[in-house]
Request: fold
Amino acid sequence: MTCTAAVESSAETLDEVVSEITASRISERGETRIDDKVTEAAMEDRKKGGYF
Reply:
């Protein structure tokens, strides 16, 4: 299962990707973690169930 979703980017080169990531104030987990969209405890529930 994918844990994070894609984030649209206008970067076209590796240097632009690095610059975009460096400037970002939002983490991929904080913004796009799919489990958090289900419930706040979804990932913790899967950990308890042995998924990780």
Observations:
- The radius of gyration is 14 Å.
- The chain has a mean pLDDT of 75.
- Helices lie at 14-23, 28-32, 34-38, 42-48.
